Amino acid sequence: MKIAVLGGTGSLGKGLVLRLASLGYDVIVGSRDVKKAEAKAEEYGKILGINIKGSDNRKAAIECDLAIITIPWKHAFDTAKELKDELAKKIVVSPIVPMEKSANGFVYVNLPEGSAAEKLASILPDSKIVSAYHNIPAKKFADLNAEFEWDVAVCGDDAESKRIVIEITNKIKGLRALDAGSLSNSRIVESLTPLLINIAINNGMKDLGIKFI
Ligand SMILES: NC(=O)c1ccc[n+]([C@@H]2O[C@H](COP(=O)([O-])OP(=O)(O)OC[C@H]3O[C@@H](n4cnc5c(N)ncnc54)[C@H](OP(=O)(O)O)[C@@H]3O)[C@@H](O)[C@H]2O)c1
Fold first, then answer.
1. From atom 42 of ligand 1, which residue's Cα is the shortest distance away?
2. What are the pLDDT digits (tens) for 15-49?
3. Counting Cβ atoms within 10 Å, is residue 101 exposed (0-12), middle (13-18) or buried (19+)?
4. Which of 39, 85, 25 minimizes the C-alpha distance to 61?
5. What single string gives the DSSP state of each residue in 172-203?
6. N or C, which end of the chain has less CB nearby within 10 Å?
7. What is the atom index within ligand 1 of the atom nearest the CA of 137?
8. Is there an atom of ligand 1 within 6 Å of 95 CB?
9. Residues facing 175 on adjacent strands
10. Which residues neighbour 80 within 8 Å (Cβ) at sequence distance 6 or greater?
11. What is the DSSP letter of 213?
């Protein structure tokens, strides 16, 4: 399966590219800038001792079977709009968390559509949207020596697409994917991320994830 990580040059993208490529998936690092994509793909490939491809987001979206949009929420939706045709009929994974900093710490931004995943679904009506990976701390995830046991709540309205994302995620050591129901539940999962960050800051902790026990 070909997996494009759009905006794969950033924090969460790095961890996903490294971990998925190390499992043998054919991963493409996407970027607005092909040179940046190629440089990052080379950097990630060197870490694993394999070749990883980098290309602009459009080409990555055309070539893939499944795309993960690892772009900050203020820009991710515009990128999705530009790639609507290229992403049609494909699984598109949203780890997007709409949040901002306030005087009281980080707050979840309520979007009119209900969640980032539902907004993405409204922009990409011909794609199969699955939401996942919102609660993963990117830096620790990208450290291949790090040990963790995190759950990944996966939401989606297309059962087969959700099953595929759960299957892929469960192959990543230290992650357990759980079916969290329909896409409309994504708002709950997304809103846990600013909570995790606030708890970390207020209690001198770092790299918090979630675990259901
Ligand atoms: N960081 C985390 O710990 C974490 C955890 C869970 C979920 N998430 C979610 O994952 C997504 C990515 O987070 P991140 O921390 O990895 O982000 P990031 O490192 O700040 O940015 C990721 C990439 O987004 C692209 N980008 C930046 N501005 C853009 C624009 N105007 N238009 C198109 N692309 C743009 C850049 O790629 P190019 O310059 O190469 O195009 C950048 O490398 C976010 O939606 C976030 O909510 C993050």
1. 10
2. 999 999 999 999 999 999 999 999 999 999 999 99
3. exposed
4. 85
5. STTEEEEE--SGGGHHHHHHHHHHHHHHHHHT
6. C
7. 3
8. yes
9. 150
10. 69, 87, 92, 120, 123, 124
11. -
Closest ligand 1 atom, residue 30 Cα: 40
Query: Each residue of 75-115: pLDDT tens digit?
Result: 999 999 999 999 999 999 999 999 999 999 999 999 999 99
Global pTM value = 0.98
Assess whether the C-beta atom of 17 lies below 6 angstroms from ligand 1.
no
CB distance 64 to ligand 1 below 6 Å: no
pLDDT at 93: 99
- For the CA of 40, the closest atom of ligand 1 is 40
Domains in the chain, please, with CATH? 2-202 (3.40.50.720)
Which is it for strands 105-108 and 99-102: parallel, antiparallel or unpaired? antiparallel
**Is 7 close to ligand 1, i.e. is its CB under 6 Å away?**
yes
Q: Is the dihedral of CA 10, 61, 186, 144 positive or negative?
A: negative
Q: Give me the pLDDT at residue 113, please.
A: 98
Q: Comparing C-alpha atoms, which of 180, 174, 183, 178 is closest to residue 207?
A: 174
Q: Ligand 1 centre and the CA of 213: distance in Å?
A: 30
Between vectors from CA 98 to CA 107 and to CA 136, what angle results, nearest 5°? 90
